[in-house]
Each structure stands twice: as structure tokens, then as C-alpha cells.
TrEMBL record:
The keyword Cytoplasm does not apply. Keywords: Cell membrane, Membrane, Transmembrane, Transmembrane helix, Transport. The chain crosses the membrane at residues 37-55, 62-82, 88-114, 126-148, 154-173, 194-224, 244-265. PROSITE patterns: ABC_TM1 (PS50928). Residues 84-276 form the ABC transmembrane type-1 domain. CDD domains: TM_PBP2. Its main location: membrane. Residues 1-25 are annotated as: Disordered. InterPro entries: MetI-like (IPR000515), MetI-like_sf (IPR035906). It is a multi-pass membrane protein. This is ABC transporter permease. The keyword ATP-binding does not apply.
Length: 290
């Protein structure tokens, strides 16, 4: 017979309680996520069924509205020919490159403006004015300057995301507690050290939050540029098929844009969870407490 000491039994009880608490914490989030996905699937399926039934029963004009079955046939045809994949890759590549370039350079410029308040005051009205201009209004000039290829779409997405990232990063430098900066100065820290140790780490949440906005702006800018002048891309596909009154193909382009937007946003959210794990923990705790 093996005898167990009181200390060992207490450890086992403590371990069992900790495991039960972990399960209780995880199970509501998993259950909530599962139910949310089920309801989303039900809503989408109901819309598609009602849509298809309305077209088949001649309640709506299938030529003007399209139908799920016709959209599926168009998607299969376009995917088999390689047209769909080519257009998707063109739009995604331009969006990602423009988003990365504009967000990184904009964030860096916004942080560097902290070094000189005089320069920031001089540039402030110009930045605000440029931010107020709809970026799609710059598309004709950018396309004339850089051509109708993918590079002009990258430039357009970069310009659109640059301003937002710059403003967000610069605003973040004004939200930092001055007591931290004064403490570093009291220890004889140089401005470059304060920038590396205080300004950049404290500004990261604002910068990453701007990335969430910028990924959508980059996609909108690229698609807008493709509408104006392009030889490939989802915007080009929707524009051409719309002129041909090919509604199923137009719907394929629209649904692909929705899918691309969701995937890109999910990727940015995942990057945020890696760079700012404490924010991810807050979000998950909020979702479990609802």
C-alpha cells in the first residue's frame, strides 16, 4: 500500500482545480465562437436559398440580379480558364505591397516628427489637407505618371495608407506619459535613447490599429485604380463584365473582393496578436465575458 502525504494530495487537488478553471475559461469562448459561426452559415445559406428560389419562380429578373447557380457556374468557368486566379493575384499583390510600403514609411515618418515640434507644426496643415482629399481623386494623375500597370496601383495604395499611418503614429507620440520621458531625462538619457526605449514601444498599439484601417484603404485604392485603367485585377474584371451586362461574373468579382478583404483583415489581426499579445488577451477576455 502506497501512502500519499498531505502535501501531495493538496498539490493534486490544486492541479485539478486549476485544470477545471482553465476548461471553464476556454469553454465559453469556444462555444460562443461555434454558435456564432453556425448562425453566420445559416444566414448566408438562407439568403442564397431565397435568392435562388426567387429567380426560379420568376419573382425577380435573373438577368438583372443573377442567381447563385449562375454565379457558381461563372466562378467555375473563370477559375478553370485561369482568369479568376490571375485577377485575384494582381489585386492582392498590389494591395499587400502598397499597404506594407505606405504603412511602414508613414509610421516611421510620424514617429520621426516627434524629434522636431517646429517641423511638425509646419507640416501639420499640409498633412491634414492631403488627408482630406479622397485618394481616388489622385488616381488619374498617378496612372498618367506611372502607367496603367500594377506599379501605379501600388503607388495609389501607398499614398492612401501613408497619410493615415503618419497621422496615427504622430498622434501616438502625444499620448505618451510625460513623466516617463522626464524620468529618462533625469537619468541623462539622450533623445535617441528616449525614442528607442519609450516612444517606439508606447506607440505600437496606435500604429498597429492604423494597420487595420489601412488594409481596407489599400484594397479600395487598388480596386479604384483598376476601375480607371488596368489590364487585370478584380476591379478591372468587375468593370469589364459590368459593361457586358454579365451579372454572374460581376457577382463573382464582388464576392472575391469580400473574401480577399476578410482574409487580409484576418492576417493583420493575427500579426497584431503576435506583436501585441496583451491586446489579444484583452479582446479574448472581453468576448468570454459577454
Amino acid at each position: 500500500m502506497k501512502s500519499t502525504s498531505p502535501e501531495m494530495s493538496l498539490k493534486k487537488e490544486h492541479t485539478g482545480v486549476a485544470k477545471n478553471k482553465t476548461k471553464r475559461k476556454q469553454s465559453p469562448f469556444t462555444k460562443e465562437w461555434t454558435m456564432t459561426m453556425i448562425w453566420r452559415f445559416i444566414i448566408v445559406a438562407a439568403i442564397l436559398v431565397i435568392w435562388e428560389a426567387a429567380v426560379q419562380l420568376k419573382l425577380v429578373n435573373g438577368f438583372l440580379m443573377g442567381s447563385p447557380s449562375a454565379i457558381l457556374d461563372a466562378a467555375i468557368t473563370m477559375f478553370s480558364s485561369g482568369q479568376l486566379l490571375t485577377n485575384v493575384l494582381a489585386t492582392v499583390n498590389a494591395t499587400i505591397i502598397g499597404f506594407v510600403a505606405g504603412s511602414l514609411f508613414g509610421s516611421l515618418a510620424g514617429l520621426l516628427m516627434w524629434y522636431s515640434k517646429a517641423v511638425a507644426r509646419v507640416l501639420d496643415p499640409f498633412i491634414v489637407a492631403l488627408n482630406g482629399i479622397p485618394k481616388i481623386a489622385l488616381a488619374p494623375m498617378i496612372i498618367i505618371w506611372f502607367g496603367s500597370g500594377i506599379f501605379s496601383k501600388i503607388v495609389l495604395a501607398s499614398v492612401a495608407t501613408f497619410i493615415v499611418a503618419l497621422l496615427s503614429a504622430y498622434q501616438a507620440t502625444h499620448q505618451i506619459d510625460e513623466s516617463q520621458i522626464n524620468l529618462m531625462k533625469s537619468f541623462g538619457a539622450k533623445k535617441s535613447q528616449i525614442f528607442r526605449k519609450i516612444i517606439i514601444p508606447s506607440s505600437l498599439p496606435w500604429i498597429i490599429s492604423a494597420f487595420r484601417i489601412n488594409i481596407g484603404l489599400a484594397l479600395v485604392s487598388v480596386v479604384g485604380g483598376e476601375f480607371i485603367s488596368s489590364d487585370k485585377g478584380l476591379g478591372h474584371m468587375v468593370f469589364v463584365e459590368g459593361n457586358l451586362f454579365n451579372l454572374p461574373a460581376v457577382w463573382v468579382g464582388v464576392f472575391m473582393l469580400m473574401l480577399v478583404a476578410m482574409l487580409l483583415y484576418t492576417c493583420v489581426s493575427y500579426i497584431e496578436s503576435l506583436l501585441l499579445p496583451w491586446n489579444d488577451n484583452k479582446n479574448s477576455s472581453k468576448s468570454t465575458s459577454v
